[in-house]
């Protein structure tokens, strides 16, 4: 397997890849690779790329929706969007009423914490609770108090004395909501009633000096719907969780990765049917981990980015055909198979 570097762009703020189309923010405009200006920007705070539309918003919560051809669709004031399904279908926080809504339906009398949507269910955190809401009708279906989770190991490297905290909603598999917590722990809650089904932490066979014998980083886990499993990948470690019984298998590639001076240093990676594409801060590389062969079959080492050094990678996006790598020095590298 081989990717070729085909283009580089300086002064890039963000990147979004939809199939074969590569969109990026550069010089106050949204551009479509290679050189088509989709939209000229002015006085914006941020950009949210969603399926079918782009939301350009200001720091005063003024939002303008555009399609991917740059046509203005609609505008909204005093709104913070959580999930945009279409131009007139979304979950948002109304800054005037101080409420979270789905269209005109009131869901919650405050802002949301961590949140995730699956079909008609909105999952979100509020204090120490995980809540499930049917957002179509505004009904809370259940809530689960994470303080009730037993046996807190208190082994998080950066907060050993902390209570349980939700780090990320991983997704839904086998009618269970999978949630990444601190302290190297993943739980699964029954989708229907919110009861605790699995609590995954210990990996007795995993022995390394700088980590406990547990999941290396719970939030570096994603759902693989096609193969009905959860996949985790961080540093030199790869793990799979069986969503039916919660069993976990971890593989340690420290020796193999050390030879190539590469490891995964970002908890966000690109998962495809055949590969995991990831960013390494070792000599600044982007690499591909072959899921079937369980080995790295391609990597690219970056040169000096005109700053006298090579900036670390900030974001990676793409698929098995195209790959975009954005560095902290705001340089975008585009690869193509």
User: In terms of per-residue confidence, which ranges show pLDDT below 50 for 5 or more consecutive residues?
Assistant: none
Beta-strand level of the residues, as a percent range? over 45%
In DSSP terms, counting alpha (H) and pi (I) runs of 4 or more, how many helices? 1
Radius of gyration: 21 Å
Folded structure, characterized:
By secondary structure, the protein is an all-beta fold. Helix content is 2%, strand content 52%. The chain has one helix spanning 254-260, and strands spanning 4-9, 12-18, 21-26, 29-32, 36-40, 46-50, 53-57, 63-66, 72-76, 79-86, 89-94, 99-102, 105-108, 115-118, 121-126, 129-134, 139-145, 166-173, 176-181, 185-190, 196-200, 221-224, 229-234, 237-241, 248-252, 270-271, 275-280, 285-290, 295-301, 313-318, 322-327, 332-336. The protein has a four-stranded antiparallel beta sheet with strand order 1-32-31-30, with no helix packed on it.
Helix and strand layout, with pairings?
Blueprint: E1 4-9, E2 12-18, E3 21-26, E4 29-32, E5 36-40, E6 46-50, E7 53-57, E8 63-66, E9 72-76, E10 79-86, E11 89-94, E12 99-102, E13 105-108, E14 115-118, E15 121-126, E16 129-134, E17 139-145, E18 166-173, E19 176-181, E20 185-190, E21 196-200, E22 221-224, E23 229-234, E24 237-241, E25 248-252, H1 254-260, E26 270-271, E27 275-280, E28 285-290, E29 295-301, E30 313-318, E31 322-327, E32 332-336
Antiparallel strand pairs: 1-32, 2-3, 3-4, 4-5, 6-7, 7-8, 8-9, 10-11, 11-12, 12-13, 14-15, 15-16, 16-17, 18-19, 19-20, 20-21, 22-23, 23-24, 24-25, 26-27, 27-28, 28-29, 30-31, 31-32
InterPro entries: Quinoprotein_ADH-like_sf, WD40/YVTN_repeat-like_dom_sf
């Amino acid at each position: 397997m081989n990717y070729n570097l085909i283009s580089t762009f300086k002064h890039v703020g963000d990147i979004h890849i939809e199939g074969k189309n590569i969109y990026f923010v550069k010089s106050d405009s949204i551009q479509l690779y290679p050189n088509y200006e989709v939209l000229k920007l002015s006085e914006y705070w941020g950009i949210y790329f969603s399926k079918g539309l782009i939301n350009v918003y200001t720091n005063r919560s003024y939002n303008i929706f555009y399609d991917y051809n740059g046509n203005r669709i609609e505008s909204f004031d005093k709104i913070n969007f959580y999930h945009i399904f279409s131009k007139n279908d979304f979950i948002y926080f109304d800054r005037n009423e101080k409420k979270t809504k789905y269209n005109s339906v009131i869901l919650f009398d405050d802002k949301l914490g961590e949140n995730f949507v699956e079909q008609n269910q909105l999952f979100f955190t509020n204090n120490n609770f995980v809540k499930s809401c049917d957002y179509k009708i505004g009904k809370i279906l259940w809530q689960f108090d994470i303080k009730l989770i037993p046996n807190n190991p208190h082994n998080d490297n950066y907060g050993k004395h902390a209570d349980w905290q939700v780090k990320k909603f991983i997704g839904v598999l086998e009618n269970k909501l999978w949630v990444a917590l601190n302290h190297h722990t993943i739980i699964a809650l029954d989708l229907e009633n919110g009861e605790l089904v699995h609590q995954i932490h210990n990996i007795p066979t995993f022995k390394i000096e700088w980590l406990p014998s547990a999941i290396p980083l719970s939030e570096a886990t994603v759902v693989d719907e096609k193969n009905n499993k959860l996949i985790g990948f961080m540093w030199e470690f790869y793990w799979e969780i069986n969503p039916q019984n919660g069993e976990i298998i971890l593989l340690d590639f420290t020796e193999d990765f050390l030879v190539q001076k590469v490891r995964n240093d970002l908890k966000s990676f690109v998962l495809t049917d055949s590969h995991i594409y990831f960013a390494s801060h070792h000599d600044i590389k982007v690499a591909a981990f072959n899921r079937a062969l369980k080995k790295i079959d391609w990597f690219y080492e970056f040169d000096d980015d005109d700053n006298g050094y090579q900036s670390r990678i900030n974001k990676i996006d793409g698929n098995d055909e195209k790959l975009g790598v954005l560095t902290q020095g705001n340089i975008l590298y585009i690869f193509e198979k």
